Amino acid sequence: MRVTTLFVALALILLPVADLSTAGHDPWPLLGRMLAGFARPDFAAVETLAHALSLTVAFAVAAVALGAAAGFAMAPFYDRWPVRALCIALRSIHEIFWALLLIQAIGIGAPAGVLALALPYAGIFAKIYAEQIEEADPRPRHALPPGTDAISRYLYACLPLIRAPMAGYTLYRLECGMRASVVIGFIGLPTLGFQLDSFFRKGDYGAASAILICYVVLIATIRLWMRPKLAPLWLALSVVLLARIDAPPMGEGAVWRLLSEDMIPAPLRAGEGLAGLIPWLREMTLTEILPGLWNTLIATQIALVLTGAIAFLGFGLTVAAVTGRVGRLAGHLGLVVLRSLPEYMLAYLFLQILGPSLLPAILALGLHNGAIIAHLLGREAAAVTPVLRADAPRGWSLWGWELVPRLFGRFLALCLYRWEIILRETAVMGILGIATLGFFIDSALAELRIDRSVVMLVVIALLSAGIDAISRHLRRRMKLRPVTGADCAAV
């Protein structure tokens, strides 16, 4: 309880200094028009919906396949510090930041979109696959002859045991890839996000509603249309679709210029050495890094507490013994919709109504992550619900007196696990115009000041690693059950 009290108190202290202002105009007329449009989805207005849907799937399938292959190759060596450091660096940078950097180097085409998703996923896959290796029964490995190399142990003693959980996690990561594939459309790649942004800018909320409905159905049915036997076919079709995307060619040597010149701080390129570098870093720290970092941390902490509140109050909605069958179906549907929509997309929707303050980001992060944790807790609650006697408590009495005490430790573990994820997503919200660190990264990239953006990306990576370390320390100290790939796959 002390950890919970500390986090809640910190969020309450930060509330008065957080920018939670609205746009300064009456949001209700706009909200009314949006709801009216959402109530009458206009599928006919979206002439290229099928093409955008197919490209959204294609980017996700190709990226997950590439990331899974790289993670599969690195997993046996994850305990070696160079591999672990590489994986941490890859996954610490959000997919959309990778996309913005890669577009500068190789243009706004299919390779940039696929690599933007595959690079962080490679680091994530390596970590999760390595954890699954550690959790596997060690006896088959010990039965192999002495001196057997790590790859042989991996392929012959571990892989048969972990193939099913690996497949389950890979399917979950494909669902994440679908969400990320939509998000990269907001920066110009031809996925559903690009069309959604276009229709919102035109005020065509009926067409936007049609896109959102198709997207939620696509995510909700992913376990029906993505079967292991069909995976090679989906991958082949994805490669064919992506190969047909026309992209403007980049200048010769753009990649080498990015790596050898653009990423080097300007004072060092000009030969000024430390005498020029220190003032350059000081100016950027005072005007961009500290303001962006301050807003990022404020939004992260408030969103984390909101996530916990939504998860804590919401997980009982999916338990039939608490809300009944009808209530369970309604609760399950609400959580499916909220966890299917990416935080970035939810923040974009709130931004249209509330304006560019921290409030849209906090609401989006709290709703999405709260729905994920509520879903996981609801599954466990349904499993531990005792066989009820005639005089046993039901409804919210069951939730308060039976389920909450049993699952409170699990609730804390999941919230702490999502903490670092919320931080990364908060930083990304800056691309929407919200004053987090991503706002200054996006501005630097728009001005082709790659060196400044790289410095700020390093700051985000270090901060993410620090929060992840604190989270793991708190979970170990409180002896909470670790969050594994199986938990993620259950989403």
UniProtKB/TrEMBL annotation:
<feature type="transmembrane region" description="Helical">
    <location>
        <begin position="96"/>
        <end position="119"/>
    </location>
</feature>
<protein>
    <submittedName>
        <fullName>Phosphonate transport system permease protein</fullName>
    </submittedName>
</protein>
<dbReference type="InterPro" id="IPR035906">
    <property type="entry name" value="MetI-like_sf"/>
</dbReference>
<feature type="transmembrane region" description="Helical">
    <location>
        <begin position="206"/>
        <end position="226"/>
    </location>
</feature>
<keyword id="KW-0813">Transport</keyword>
<keyword id="KW-1133">Transmembrane helix</keyword>
<feature type="transmembrane region" description="Helical">
    <location>
        <begin position="154"/>
        <end position="172"/>
    </location>
</feature>
<feature type="transmembrane region" description="Helical">
    <location>
        <begin position="293"/>
        <end position="317"/>
    </location>
</feature>
<feature type="transmembrane region" description="Helical">
    <location>
        <begin position="426"/>
        <end position="446"/>
    </location>
</feature>
<feature type="transmembrane region" description="Helical">
    <location>
        <begin position="179"/>
        <end position="200"/>
    </location>
</feature>
<keyword id="KW-0472">Membrane</keyword>
<dbReference type="GO" id="GO:0005886">
    <property type="term" value="C:plasma membrane"/>
</dbReference>
<feature type="transmembrane region" description="Helical">
    <location>
        <begin position="49"/>
        <end position="75"/>
    </location>
</feature>
<keyword id="KW-0812">Transmembrane</keyword>
<keyword id="KW-1003">Cell membrane</keyword>
<feature type="transmembrane region" description="Helical">
    <location>
        <begin position="452"/>
        <end position="471"/>
    </location>
</feature>
